[in-house]
Amino acid sequence: MSCPTLHLHALHWSPHGAPRPLLDNIDLHVGPGEFVGLIGPNGSGKTSLLRCAYRFSRPDAGQVRLEGEDIWQRTPRWAAQRIAVMLQEFPEDFGLSVRDVVAMGRTPHQGWFDGDADTALIDTTLDRLGLLPRALDAFTCLSGGEKQRVLLARALVQQPRLLILDEPTNHLDPRFQLALLQQLRGTGLSLLASFHDLNLAAAFCDRLYVLDAGRVVAHGTPQQVLTEQCLAEVFGVRALVDCHPLAPHPRITWISPA
């Protein structure tokens, strides 16, 4: 078996002074080119896990390894050259254009490429995502879906091995949700993302990890994980789970309490 892109092993983390860990004995891996989703109720530890994975929060115990290397034994720049992150909130743009925001993705590599190579990479990425005509527009004037595409372009010009996303479809309408996730799948990168919408996670992820109270309580393919019993136990809500009529993945219908 080839080395996984990302491997979290026996991970524990808690904020300073907390009475119990928010992440407890987490084991998780993301293979090369694999799209892995994190699901679980609010407060289950999804964002905390992602922060450990992209070298924002240092774990109290355990390891975060990227292609076999302990990321906390390497420099922040080393990690930034290999891991890109898309968060829920849009950054402050400070009057930046679309091109300016995308160019920020080259920061970890400054000194490796000349200006012409960077410009060509930025233009190619903007064109690939249909953003080249908006390159000189102000980032602040874009719609939510367009801003997400700009942030994806910024991540892609970073040329990472791994892309980490915290609720990538948050605030997007269905059209842009589907378009963004299809674009993510088309990158060929290793992907780790948190989801609230379980039907989107079922449709686009290769494997899922279910978190509850800081622990992994289930993991596997969407078919293995998204069962009526698991959803009832973790989310406390009854659901009907059947096969999507047009695709080979589960479909979830939540059942309102009587």
Automatic annotation (TrEMBL):
<dbReference type="InterPro" id="IPR003439">
    <property type="entry name" value="ABC_transporter-like_ATP-bd"/>
</dbReference>
<dbReference type="InterPro" id="IPR003593">
    <property type="entry name" value="AAA+_ATPase"/>
</dbReference>
<dbReference type="Pfam" id="PF00005">
    <property type="entry name" value="ABC_tran"/>
</dbReference>
<dbReference type="InterPro" id="IPR027417">
    <property type="entry name" value="P-loop_NTPase"/>
</dbReference>
<feature type="domain" description="ABC transporter">
    <location>
        <begin position="6"/>
        <end position="238"/>
    </location>
</feature>
<dbReference type="GO" id="GO:0005524">
    <property type="term" value="F:ATP binding"/>
</dbReference>
<keyword id="KW-0547">Nucleotide-binding</keyword>
<keyword id="KW-0067">ATP-binding</keyword>
<dbReference type="InterPro" id="IPR017871">
    <property type="entry name" value="ABC_transporter-like_CS"/>
</dbReference>
<protein>
    <submittedName>
        <fullName>ABC transporter ATP-binding protein</fullName>
    </submittedName>
</protein>
